Each structure stands twice: as structure tokens, then as C-alpha cells.
């Protein structure tokens, strides 16, 4: 399991790798928050939960990430721990159940970086590799 | 790409293209574009070509010299659509709806600020909410959000957060007609409840600048500009609301496409016929996003003025608006196509309207010279005030460039510069940077952008906007 940021001309790419597709999504979320704050300093104090749905597996990644950005804006929280479950194809759409742990954003403690505004379809890819799964896309900052 | 004239390169018709592509450039810009093309499959020329495949596009798919790869369409692109045959395209508006620039002028000169720079910078940093997760000073409930979405900057002015006189001096007079808050999701509205009057981060800023050079005395006089004068520019957009509208409608449009027999080469070019139910809904939501950004910039203008009121004992009325321009928009405008004037949906993604003299959309005050076109540079280099031209009306549906355009990724910039290094270097050059995150400052290092002077040279010589003044930064508050 690992996450990283990758280069894009104007914005930032976020990439997560894991043994399962769920883990790759979780790591990708961590990558996105690592672009915004020092995730090591974000205590997983409070849990939020949501379901996400999309027309296909790839579209589910930005949908999942955008849901997290929504919670960030509305609840003023940042997150450092993520859990994705039941990622599967249902009737007519893909879905997942997500939990995220974090706390109220504190500019003095969390080392703010850049505000991610939206996860996009740019360089969007969810793929199986010999080592497991990779989930990545570019986020608009 | 082949050179069509001194300042225009053409992407000839091929594959599914319905119109040719056109790039306003010089060899320096072409070099940057080709460099990007070499790097990968996702590049601005492929994106321009993809846009040229859309139905109803008039004359050309246009790209301006600040072009770089974007979402679906490249940043710095313009597409004008026939209202019957054309589509409204997600990628030609993008995520940050009506990101734009608003500038007000002051009666002060550089001399007046000597010795007070740090005080003013601190005051702006304290008063202008900026950076990740920083809420505004105004809290809105749901009904108030709807009002902002339908009334734009008028909402701000009526609530004492701006001057009435400002409204005349913004595109669409600060409120575009046809916005429908009912077509904006509750999620989008919820994101905006704490965000009215916030700068955000990324490339957004509030900058105190001085007029370094005047190129066009007559236009400068009309715009109220003089040498050494202090002016203030604010760059930001519709915040989380615009992005949520974008993400929401990307899904709506994608779902609608098969029903209209539409296919696109890139998911972020999702579109719907302009006259369709989905197209009209999206357009009215884009309008709501446009109004949201007008209100946001007006509140920020108000806040920045209060800093000058306090530091220099000025009255807000002594700091009139120069103009407010919008970058990521879709608007109904009348233009000439094949010798006939018709109404089109002009979509600008990372491009500025550049209406020439005589157009009724240009405020009366400026109608003789053309609209002010405000171009943001980087925090270390020049910005420009241009004017709109008749050539722009003929060639680019009244559009020009919007900024310098990046040449280096944010991740790449972080490898090359540190935030502290950038702040110290700019301080040596007399520029104070106040940022809410050092990493964000490194990402925005001036060296990560194209040379603004080259970019402006292209649009000036091509005639799609004309130089009025060059301004330099003194204080920059970054998110």
C-alpha cells in the first residue's frame, strides 16, 4: 500500500496503490489530502461515512474523492484515514461504502498546502497490475 | 500545426474535426506547446482538435497564447456555438466557473506606500480570508445562497459589501440574467455557505500593484490609470460551489449524450444540445456559478478597500473600480459569422472577453476605447491592463488571453523551489508575499509560468487586444 503525487502541467496528480481496488482508492484519498495538509498531523478523531455511486468503476474514483471534498468544505474537516468497502458493480451502476477519519482543520497544526477543488477525469485510471491495483487521477487546485 | 500568419498557427482539418483549430502564438509559445505535445498523449493540441469535433462550432476552435493542457478543452480556449446545432460543453467552462479578475484603482502612488508596505500587507493578510479551509466573514443560510446565485454582486452591494458604482463596471453588470438557483444542487449550495468573500488557494491572489508603464495614454486616461499609481487586483472564482456544479453536471451531461446521439473523444467534453432540457439546466446552473463568483469578488474588493481605508485614511469611493473580467464562462453574445450577425453561445475556458469599441456590453465610460482587459501575471512578474479591439470581434469572438499560463507542474515546482526561497527572493526585489502555506507559494513560483511579456506580445501584435499599461506587484496575498 502506498500513495504519491505525480506531475501535471497546472494541477496535481494523485495516485494510490494497494493489494485490492478498495485499498488503492483509500490510498488515493490519502494522496489527495497529502496535497492539502501534512496527513501525519491529522488525528483520526472523528468518523464520517458515505456511499458513492457512478456509472463505471473509473468514474467512481473522482466521485469518491469529490464526496470527501464536499465533507471537507461543509464540515471544515481534513482526513488521514480511509476505509472503502463493498466496491462493486450493482444494477446499472458501480458503488462503494466509504468511511473517513479526521478532525477539524487547524491551519496552525496541519501545515496547509494547496486547496484541492475537485477530482477530475483527467488521466483517470483504475487498473489491475501484477502487484495489485492502481487508482489515479488529476485533481484541480 | 502550420503557420497561417505572423501570429496565428493553424491546426488543419483531419479526422472528425468539423472546423480547423487556431492557435495565437509566436515561436516561443509554439516551442512550449510542442514541448508539451512531446511529453504525452494528453496535450493542448489534442484537446484543441477534440474541441474542433464538436457539433455547431463556428469558424474555428481557438486557443490563445497562454494555452496549456486542461480538462477536456485546453486552458486558453474559446468555442462559439450555433444556438440550434450547437452544444454546451463541460470542458469549455470547466470546474472553477467564472474564475476572474477584478481591479480597483487608488489615488495613491508608490511614494505614498513607502514605509507602510509591511503594515498594509499585514492588514490585507489579516482581513482577506485566504487559504485552505478558511471561511468567510459572512455566513449565509440556504435562502441567502439562492439570492447570491440569482443576483450576483448586487447581493453584496445591497448588504453593504461593495459600492453601487462598482456594478456598472463588471461584466454583465455583476449579475448575469437567466441564473436559476433551483438547478444548483443542495450540496453545491452547502459548500458555499461559509465561502462568500474567500480567496481560496492555488493561483488565486489579492495583489497590490503599481503602474509601471503606460502604452496608450488615451485608454489609460479613460481607465483612470496613471504612472506609479497603486491599484489592487483580485483573482478568484466561485469556490467550492462552482466545482460542485461542474462535477454534478459532468454526470448529467454524460448521461444525456446517448439520447442525443452525441459521442465525444474525452469524458470531460461531455455536452448536450444547447436547446435541450439538460443543456438549458446546465446553462442556468453555470449562470448561477457566474453570479456566485461576481458576488465573491465584490465582497473581497470591499474587504481589500477597508484595508486601504484604515492604512491611508481613504474613503471607499476614492478607490473606484477599474473593471471585473470573467475567465471560465458560457455566454450568449452576438457576433458576425459569414457576414451575418447572429447570437451564439460563446464558451471561454481560461480566456478573457475582449470586446472592442462601440459594443453595448462595454460600460459607457469605456465604450469609445474598448473594454478593459485585465491580465494576471505571476507574483514576481508584470501583469497587464489591455483594451478590447475590433480585431478581436472579427477573429476571436471578442476574446483574448487570461494569464501567463504554466510551463511547469506544481510537483515539479516543489522540487525546484522552496516557499521560503521564493519569498526571500521576491523580498529582495521589493515584493512582499503573504501566504497561508509555504508549499503553495513554491508551487506558484514565477519561474513555473510562461514569460508574460511574450504572451502579451502575441495578443497585442495579433491585435486581439491592445496594451494600455503594465503593472508590477508590490504586495501579494496568496491562499
Automatic annotation (TrEMBL), chain A:
Binding site for Ca(2+): 11, 140-141
Descriptive protein name: Protein archease
Entries under PANTHER family matching the protein: ARCHEASE, PROTEIN ARCHEASE
InterPro entries, per the entry: Archease, Archease_arc, Archease_dom, Archease_dom_sf
Gene Ontology MF, one: calcium ion binding
NCBIfam families: PRK00407.1 (NF001617)
Organism encoding this protein: Candidatus Iainarchaeum sp
Single GO BP term: tRNA splicing, via endonucleolytic cleavage and ligation
HAMAP family cross-referenced by the UniProt entry: Archease_arch
Positions of the Archease domain: 3-141
Domain of life: Archaea
One Pfam match: Archease
The keyword Lipid biosynthesis belongs to this UniProt entry's keyword annotation: no
Role summary: Activates the tRNA-splicing ligase complex by facilitating the enzymatic turnover of catalytic subunit RtcB. Acts by promoting the guanylylation of RtcB, a key intermediate step in tRNA ligation. Can also alter the NTP specificity of RtcB such that ATP, dGTP or ITP is used efficiently.
Record has Metal-binding as a keyword: yes
